[in-house]
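User: Can you help me understand a structure? I only have the sequence.
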Amino acid sequence: MTQLEISYQSEPKLINNTFEALDDSVKNGIQCRWLGRLTHAQASFGFHFNWEELANQGADRLSGYIIIKESTNSVAPQKTEVDITNTSITMMTPFSMTQPLKYVFSFEYSLTPHYKELKKVSYDELFAPSDMTDAVLVVEEKRIHVNKAFLSIHSDYFKKSKSMTSPTTTSDSFAAVSSQIYSFQMMAPLRSF
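Assistant: Let's start by predicting it. Here is the structure, written out as tokens:
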């Protein structure tokens, strides 16, 4: 699953012979620091991207491009395709020029977050009879095969209960609890089963 692209364009900056931060930006969960310097007839640029905020929302990579432009167009723009999987990464980009003059550069990026596909879980399969289940819990007339000892660890109700019917539990609330217990499987939280 992808989201709409996130684009940013910097202001033009004068590049000198000291490697320094030229621009800091934050846009829709992407932090970017642009660094650069000019040595002889070559400019070197670094981009430090931090997109942990998007990763915390389920993004597992960013793809797109970065374009570096010289303001007078005396040097052709340079476009670099990127596919970023580290949530905090620094990339270096060399930029060759004809002569060692003072140059003013800007950059832009367009990145698209890609999100992990959540595994759809069938509660009928998840709570089917197996050698690990020893009781049947009835929730809203649905028969769910469970392990009574496991449920007893999480609730005193099941320790004391002779009948495994839960008249006050809805399938929505049981699905929400199940999603928390099985969250390590990256399953989509279902409202009911």
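Now, to help you interpret it: The helical segments are 52-56, 123-126, 148-154, 156-160, 171-181. The mean pLDDT is 79. Let me know which part you'd like to focus on.
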